[in-house]
Structures
1.
Amino acid sequence: MEGRGDARRSKNLRPEHNNTRYLDSIVETAVEWFAPYAHIIKVIGYGNHETSIIKYQETDLLRRFVDLLNYKCSSNVQTGGYGGWIIIKQTLYGNCNVTTKVKYYHGSGGGGVVTKGALNLTRSLEMYEDFDVFTMGHIHENSSRNDVRECVNHNSKKGYSVKQRQLHLMLTGTYKEEYGEGAFGWHVERGAPPKPLGGRILKIECKEVDNSLVKNIDSFKFPL
């Protein structure tokens, strides 16, 4: 946000970024920081800050970051969209295959002080179908909830059966501390409260019950 054309810029620059190639510098710093984790990163999606840079600076920082990270680390990180799908496939004991469908969306709006994003999660139930997990960020909240939907499954041997589908909805947090002591800053002036820092870890458990596979999905706050 310290680029020449950004209205939010300030003089609070790191020494290594205080040069005439600021955007290039932050890409290089990010690659250096994320390099030890490149082998476990699968997808990096756009947020509103990245799309804003494309709009006003005509350069795609996220794709430049992913390309340089893959080049330096021989990794295979994928560039995702502002929203998209991630399909997680697991092979369990007895060569049993389990698929978990994750719908992700960076998010929109400012979030509510009272509801803390609960309405955004409820809207996802109306907008998307056939997902197991929905995850959204953007509003800098960190929480989750579980919903259940009745559905009809078909098996070529057993025919139709009524099942309950477990859905996990979560809001992923941020690592950007904006509140401080509550004295100054855009975040404070607009009346926004302190926000929880940290991400979330998704946990998928499967077990066989009465010759049927039961899947339990939950998440917990990632420690700092």
2.
Amino acid sequence: MSQPSPAARVVMSSGDVSRAVRRVAHEILERNKGAQDLVVLGIPSRGVPLARRLVAVMAEVEGVAVPVGTLDVTMQRDDLRHQPVRALARTDIPGPGIDDKVVVLVDDVLFSGRTIRAALEALAELGRPRAVRLAVLVDRGHRELPIRADHVGKNLPTSSTERVHVRLAEVDDEEDGVRISGGDR
């Protein structure tokens, strides 16, 4: 996400982000009936700290450590011809692997669905999960592919000209928050 403009309006405060992460972690555990066979994979860059926050809450609730890792989707993206200069991130699959596990992909913003399509391709190259679920902090709509999130921190209707800026302390060296800029609002 790019730097927000000074006119960006805050739609989620640091407290809102924290509550959303806690709620999503509880939803994941409830749907899975506990932490058994879960593997949580964050999509760089902001999906990674969100994934780590989710598993920290799960550990608090369940008293067990849920395996967490990262899934780089750079080479599976369908826009490489248009934006060829992308830094590769690291894929780090936890020890138990993903075969026959319930994998929860975590990202900051769900928009067109193209990043998640790339994540599904990357995941297929690594193994065969029993199920794949998607958790996002913000779902802003405007899908170009038939992809939906299973767990959403906040549904945020936006115009296609607006930009959503997620800021996380681990990545951005500032307080957590979500802002919207641009558009005709």
3.
Amino acid sequence: MLPFWIALQFLSSLPVRLPGMPEPAQLGRSLLFYPSVGLLFGGLLWGLDAWLSGAPLLLHAALLLTAWVLLSGGLHLDGLADSADAWLGGFGDRERTLLIMKDPRSGPIAVVTLVLVLLLKFSALLALIEQQQSLALLIVPVLGRGALLALFLTTPYVRAGGLGQALADHLPRHAGWQVLVAVALGSVLVAGWAGLGALVVAALGFIGLRRIMLRRLGGCTGDTAGALLELLEMAVLVAWALS
């Protein structure tokens, strides 16, 4: 179970403490449990949604979104902000883009991107609450974190050394593909046609965003992985609300 606790510590703000620094093989195996962390998040959000039943709709949606952000500690939003700044300020240059992503400061484009993504998530959550489509709260976090596993399975990691490189180098690839198949089947079995639609939107978004990363960087970084997750969650929520 250690790889699961590693994944939970890395992806969440929950009070998880490991006894020491994990072995590289355990770090790689932790990627297999990313969708499980998403399922845990989804279960917590689904329970909160049920508890908030009857609350004013705007407050209901705002509290759900707040909980969603707090569960991950804003980790992926930080990656989205860094990526937004780097893509604009990098002017198409790979090295400049990578350099900007390492800068902890956020420029106007990062702020605008975060506001728009959170606004769209909030609006989609509001619509899903009105439509009583609570299954989206279970499926979307799983697909978002499954996309991180898919990214490491299919895309080179471009920063040598560090945690991301250890994850990429020691990921059990055959087991990774099995986990992704289980995520896809589970989404359809649990949510039916809505789950299939969410899966299609997530797959199309993944293909497009991965192509952008390859064209600019030749691979991915931790920041672009976070941006991928946030943008896919937003896209799936909006598509589900519109369906």
4.
Amino acid sequence: MRIATYNVEWFSNLFDDQNQLILDDSWSSRHDVTKRQQAEALGIVFTAMDADAILVVEAPDQNSKRATVPALEHFAEAFNLRTREAVIGFSNDTQQELALLSDPDVLTARHDPISTPDAPRFDQKFDIDLDVDERADTVVFSKPPLELAITAKSGAEVRLIGAHLKSKAPHGARNRDEVMRISIANRRKQLAQAVWLRRRIVQHLQDGESLIVAGDLNDGPGLDEYEDLFGRSSVEIVMGEEGQDCLHDPHARAALNRRLGAQPTTSRFYIEKENRYLQALLDYIMVSADLRTKRPKWHIWHPFDDRDCWRVPELRDALLTASDHFPVTMDIDL
């Protein structure tokens, strides 16, 4: 089985209020890319991945006028994809939903949110002392993680949690001190969300369940100047320490063990004021120890780092046109 995670930048803006693809030459929300160009590039990428299940990060919007599931299923139909059934969890108000596209001939997936006293359901509230002042702060997810119960046609059962953690930009800051204060507060909230997610992970692992945690954690070792202040990144919190109740992702482990030198990356952003591109490792597929024994194989579809992607000009160009993130896939025998 091939499982993928793919953050599609501004996917929602490619659909109209009837949840149909807009295939015209109007501008998409990606710089210098039309809606037709982005949609067709996505069709090429999804087809090339040929995954059985794709966690779509920043999936089309879910609100009173638009719906994520029909939008994704219309997208699959337009490009004749095997992954033709979609499922969504708790919607949010950011125009960036979390959803799964899957092949019903290979697996079934249903939204199955869990709640425990230690870790409430992800659309609820979580109390934690963020600043060690002996007073609990209330945290909510702007993008509640997607909890799925997956059953393969073989009968194998797996839990999958799709996540999109994000520390908001310091909007409203009027000077450097305010930028720092707001940035630290926002990062603290992101780490609290990671702790909340980690508690759910530990519960599944202690219950002996096979678990996959996938998505965009918007964080990683060495990513910003606030990491030393808090000691650990969201990635390290979610994965856990090496040993008991630990998840594994080879790219994350490589980055953690190699602070200097070449590291894997899954995204590419243009920094206009510096006239250059920044690459970062943001997207992960983490697995429980029992799944790791099945010797899964991970693959980052990076057009410059992966030889096969580079050698196919149509795919290479499509990866650059479709999004500012690149897909990550994992092949595993279930």
